[in-house]
User: What shape does this take?
Amino acid sequence: MKRSIIITGGAGFIGSHVVRLFVNKYPDYKVINLDKLTYAGNLDNLKDIEDKPNYKFVKMDICDFDGVLKLMQDEKVDGIIHLAAESHVDRSIKDPFTFAQTNVMGTLSLLQAAKCYWDGNWEGKRFYHISTDEVYGALEMTNPEGIKPPFTTKASSGEHHLAYGSKFFTEDLKYQPHSPYSASKASSDHFVRAFHDTYGMPTIVTNCSNNYGPYQFPEKLIPLFINNIRHRKPLPVYGKGENVRDWLFVEDHARAIDLIFHQGKIAETYNIGGFNEWKNIDIIKVLINTVDRLLGRKEGEDMDLITYVTDRAGHDLRYAIDSTKLQRELGWEPSLQFEEGIEKTVRWYLDHQDWVDNVTSGEYQKYYDSMYKNR
Ligand code: NAD
Ligand code: TYD
Assistant: This one.
């Protein structure tokens, strides 16, 4: 095998797309998916590649320093792509300890295991940490009606092409996380950079905007709402639905990760996004129209499912990524227009109701009920 790499969190949403891409594209790499299989991890996401000879699954907690070190020694690991995390802001508000444990201590345990195994022989090694735009905090919404954004990408080239402010997240911005989730991710980013600055470990950090697409756990906005529209359940819109997120199709994120793992500069940070800002309420309307149309209902007939509920505590108003550095230096661009990606995504969830039912049964249902019913 040419390389032996660990991808952490490979049974989750983004991780499963990254594992699939690497297993299919690099038959001469050994791809080890290290995942604890929390509520968010699901091996069904990888059924199509699980029998490939260059793929191996290991059930392990990233906090298990001895286990990770031994795995690295046994498999002669020379690269880590680190996605494992607790990833849902609402859960972090209820249970911040778990977020500090996995996102901060877990990342530190991986870094320390890599440092012990590589032992200063950094040649050909790489520790690539996947982070989020949420570490930068929230941007102001200086143009609530929307203005023409400074760049158009394939993702934002549809009819809706707006920016809601003149400022964007660039790589040199000060970290200002607001939620326990983003605070834990910010902390993990600092540890990764500290391992480069202190020990010389070849690290890279990327901060990506909101992802959407197949296999996302249906507690996040897009898959949750598709499922609720299908079953004509209320759509709990936080606050006024005016918050803005910048959306990227998950396979475009996976392609960026592949490119940056192989060609990114050591110690650099790259922002990943598509200049594709949407107010939540506008996305929700697109979802309702799309689900209705694909189910043969009258387009828009489910608009009355929209239910405004108490706002999320500390709800960040606007996220908007400036990804020009990645586009300029490594030539990455989103491949899909947002409207095409949403159509593809809605079709996927409607065609995979078994997957949705499996991951949302049992404990999840109790959690969901306690989360939303009492609002
Ligand atoms: P996810 O919640 O769908 O998946 C997380 C995966 O990590 C699951 O498979 C889970 O079992 C595993 N995991 C959790 N704790 C673990 C532990 N202690 N040890 C080993 N495995 C563990 O998350 P996602 O949406 O795929 O996000 C992946 C990464 O990308 C995260 O680091 C997240 O911060 C980052 N990110 C996500 C988005 C987004 O929009 N989803 C955007 C930018 C960055
Ligand atoms: P989410 O998918 O949780 O991603 P993040 O909080 O990491 O951006 O939420 C996306 C947006 O949708 C965010 O502004 C919160 C909002 N939202 C709702 O209005 N209702 C919901 O039920 C959920 C899950 C999210």
Q: What stands out?
A: Residues 89, 210, 220-221, 224, 236-238, 243, 245, 280, 312 surround thymidine-5'-diphosphate (ligand 2) (CB under 6 Å). The radius of gyration is 20 Å.
